[in-house]
Amino acid sequence: xxxxxxxxxxxxxxxxxxxxxxxxxxxxxxxxxxxxxxxxxxxxxxxxxxxxxxxxxxxxxxxxxxxxxxxxxxxxxxxxxxxxxxxxxxxxxxxxxxxxxxxxxxxxxxxxxxxxxxxxxxxxxxxxxxxxxxxxxxxxxxxxxxxxxxxxx
Length: 153
What we know:
3-stranded antiparallel beta sheet; alpha+beta; 26% strand
């Protein structure tokens, strides 16, 4: 049925009453202008701002020692290049890394992590254990144990 008071696109519309008002609201809500693209200037500005925000967030990211919650001070011992003896074992978990000295002598040991995170130097007597940071949500796994020289206080 074609009516005289119809819209240009649909060719059929109710003449009056509540149906006409509902049709007019629907028509305004569903008909968009033909050109809905974003201008190239606005797109360049948005991408530029996004790039600046990402770059600033990476530049201000906390170093590994700050993520560790300040548990390790910089002067808590120096690491030597030697690996810990085979009788020193470690058991790593999400939260803690436990190091056990099964040797007959006292050993100074520290933990080596995948991202080079600093770990304190601990002195372990025979059959003694120490707790270090685990690998955590950043998946910073233990790569080995090293001997070290404890800091003097």
